[in-house]
Write a structure and sequence with these properties.
By secondary structure, the chain is mostly helical. It has a single domain, classed as MetI-like fold (Orthogonal Bundle), CATH 1.10.3720.10. The chain has 12 helices and no strands. Helix 3 runs parallel beside helix 6, helix 4 crosses helix 6 and helix 8 runs antiparallel to helix 12. The N and C termini lie far apart (57 Å).
C-alpha cells in the first residue's frame, strides 16, 4: 500500500498560505474603519464608498486609475486575442527555417525582462513612432506586444493536440479553408481562446513597468502605477480597497470563464464538437 505524500502536501499548503497571507492582510485592512493600515480599528465600508472624500467611489484619481486599467485590459483582449489566434494558426501550418525564426522571435517577450521590453517600447514610441502618443495608445501597443505570446502558446498547444485530421475531413466534404477553420477548428479552440483571453486580462491589469513607462501622466495612470506612486506617501486603506476591487475583478473573470468552459464541455465534448461540425458540413 502506497503512503500518502503528506510531507509534500504539507509543504505545498504552507507555501500557498505564505503566498496568500500578504494578500489576505491587504484585503482585510481595506475594511478597516480607521486610517491605519496596520492596526485593526473595526469593520467598515468607509474606504469603498462611505468616506465622502477619500473612498474609492468619491476619489476621482482612484476611479480614473480603475477605469484606465479595466479599459486598457479590455482593449488588449480585443486586439491581442484574435491576432494571437491568427498567428497560432499560421505558425502551426508554416514550415521551414523562417517558421522557426518566427517562433523564436515570438517567444522573446516571455524570456526578456519586462523592464527591457518596457524601455525598448518607450524609446521606440518616443523616437520612431511620432504618430503614437504616450498614454493609452502607447500602453495598448505595449500590452499587446507582450500579451500576444501568451495567446499564441495557449492556442497553438491546443491546435497541436487537435491535429490536422478533422480539418482535412472537412475539406474532403467540400468545405473551403475558411469554412473548415470557422466551423471545425474554432469550436474546438474555444476553451483555449477563453483561457488565453483571461490570461491576457490578468497580465494586462497587473502590469506596472510598461504602463508606467508609456504613461502620459495622471490621466493614463493604471491601478498598479497609482498604488506605487501613493503607497510611499500618506496612503489610506482606500488603496487597499482599490487593490481588492482589482483582485475581485480578476477572480470574477476566472470564475466566469471556468463556468462557460464547464457548460460548453457538458453540452458537447471536444470530439463531439468536431463530429457535429463535420456532420453539418456534410449536410450542406
Amino acid at each position: 500500500m502506497k503512503r500518502k505524500p503528506r510531507l509534500l502536501a504539507s509543504f505545498t499548503a504552507l507555501y500557498v498560505l505564505w503566498s496568500m497571507l500578504p494578500v489576505a492582510i491587504a484585503v482585510l485592512f481595506s475594511f478597516n474603519s480607521g486610517r491605519s493600515r496596520s492596526t485593526w480599528q473595526g469593520f467598515s465600508l468607509r474606504w469603498y464608498w462611505g468616506d465622502p472624500f477619500s473612498s474609492v467611489w468619491h476619489d476621482d484619481s482612484l476611479l480614473r486609475a480603475l477605469r484606465n486599467s479595466l479599459v486598457l485590459a479590455a482593449l488588449t483582449i480585443l486586439v491581442a486575442t484574435p491576432l494571437g489566434v491568427g498567428l497560432a494558426l499560421g505558425l502551426t501550418r508554416w514550415r521551414g527555417k523562417p517558421a522557426r525564426v518566427a517562433n523564436g522571435i515570438l517567444l522573446l517577450p516571455l524570456v526578456t525582462p519586462e523592464l527591457v521590453v518596457g524601455t525598448a517600447l518607450f524609446l521606440v514610441v518616443t523616437n520612431s513612432y511620432s504618430f503614437l502618443d504616450l498614454g493609452r495608445p502607447a500602453q495598448l501597443v505595449g500590452h499587446v506586444t507582450f500579451s500576444l505570446s501568451y495567446v499564441v502558446i495557449v492556442v497553438r498547444g491546443r491546435l497541436l493536440s487537435i491535429g490536422p485530421d478533422l480539418e482535412e475531413a472537412a475539406r474532403d466534404l467540400g468545405a473551403s479553408p475558411f469554412q473548415a477553420v470557422r466551423m471545425v477548428i474554432v469550436p474546438l479552440l474555444t476553451p483555449a481562446i477563453f483561457a488565453s483571453a483571461v490570461l491576457v486580462f490578468a497580465t494586462s491589469i497587473d502590469d506596472f513597468v510598461a504602463s508606467s513607462l508609456l504613461s502620459s501622466g495622471a490621466g493614463s495612470e493604471t491601478v498598479p502605477v497609482k498604488i506605487y506612486g501613493s503607497v510611499r506617501g500618506g496612503a489610506t486603506p482606500a488603496l487597499n480597497a482599490l487593490a481588492t476591487i482589482m483582485l475581485s475583478a480578476s477572480m470574477l473573470a476566472l470564475v466566469v470563464v471556468f463556468a462557460i468552459m464547464r457548460v460548453m464541455r457538458r453540452r458537447q465534448g471536444d470530439t463531439n464538437a468536431g463530429e457535429n461540425s463535420l456532420k453539418e458540413l456534410a449536410s450542406w
